[in-house]
Specification:
It holds the Pfam family DUF4836. The protein is an alpha+beta fold. It has 16 helices and 20 strands.
Amino acid sequence: MIQKKTISVWMACWTMLVGMMVSCTGGNEYESALPEDAALVISVNPVSIVDKSGLSGETGKNAVQRLGDALKSGMQGSGQLIDKIIENPSESGIDFRRNLYFFMESQSISAGMLARVSDEGKLEELFKALSKQQICSMPMEENGCSWTVMGNVLAAYTSDALLLLADPNGGAPQDLLHTASMLLRQGEKEGYRATSDFVRMKSGNGDVIALGTLDLIPGRYVTPMMMGISGDMKMKDVKCMAEVTFGEGKMTVEFTDLTTDPVMKQMKDRQMQVFGKVTGKYLDFFPANTGFWLSVNVDGKKAYEMLKEHPVFNNQLENSMMPVDFEAIFSALKGDMAIAGDLLANKFIAYADVTDNGFLQTFEDLKPLLLLTGGQMKLINRGTSAYEFWMMDGSMLGMRPGSLSFWFGVSDGKFYFTNDSRLVDASVEGLSLRDCPWGKEVKGKRCFYAMNLAALLETGQSFPDRPEMEALRFVKGLDYLVIESVDAEKSRMELVMKDKKQNILRVLLSSIN
């Protein structure tokens, strides 16, 4: 019986052994095997990845040797073959000098990987060696291609391409043989390679490029998402491309909206009328070591009008059991909004520019309703424009058990909402968020989010058992993460390390080692 754990270890190690590659030869015919209805395609440049990670050349020898030893431990008797492949990866029969493609078909009915074959005979020799270790079945020839099964994965190949296919829903891999054989027979003007999306991917810049559409979502999830949205919207035409670049001390992801669906484009145009450009005024309200900070600029009146046009939201607003004037609250919001705090300590405060404080009067109408809770919930006046909302047990509203309070009100032309009253109008001593490396990038953006990962790691020393701390400790030397939206089409994410001189991939690899 094929051991799934052995397969997983083997594949993980093997992926990292593309380290000693030379210049490109041959063509791109293998790209024709990509399915035309792919809802997500990811292109990986192995040459660039290996070079930036430090696996190539003398500097990567130790890491490559360790990975080779790991492979040998799971493949007794195949040491000679592994050594040969480590010395020259082309001995595997796979051309790691060409891009690797990962994909998922429409509604996630299947997932796969595509690689170029440089030598079909050597590839078959590799699979035969793996079959002796019960990592895969003995290769067979059928439907114009050779194939084998590795756990839940079908591997099919010709002299041009190696195709790995799996059913995310748990179907038998053998059932995918017909699909695989059809894909491997596609010509240059067939499949995803013949689409304008593939042309756009090929023109992109990045070590990894991904292009996905909403058609990736399984059908059972589509109906709830489409509630209140025109049935004319085509999920396959709502798409985005991401270009990932691993640089010195940082990873950058450039997002480009490629949506062509007129319904979605109209919705986005409407949203752009609601959200203006952030001024960054709330940068000065928080110290430089703040855990996270998110800011947008909103016209509340237009936001309310947009929500009213959506039948689901409109029904909630019109038939709400809460005696609150939502229109008055929304209409008072105009300008920058920001929320900041400490994720691990569970403390936050939100600020928003408001035109006046008259809308607070509508919260007085909540008091008679809260009286019906028998004292389990209270709205307490804490000044002329300040309130405390208190609950005996937060679990009544799906929050943490125990006594819980929120404070809100208006101070100096700004609305605030927090779970820690000490944060209201707290003075900043020393450096503020404006002094952070990303502080000068905020002004003029549609949306800006920053997370101080170094501060999060420091705070995390008091929360050693939190699961997210395991992930953060795994990657050493993290500094901060920023996500910014420039306009309706362009967004950007940047993960920055403290060490700005080493490529981030090399740092990540050292964390693994």
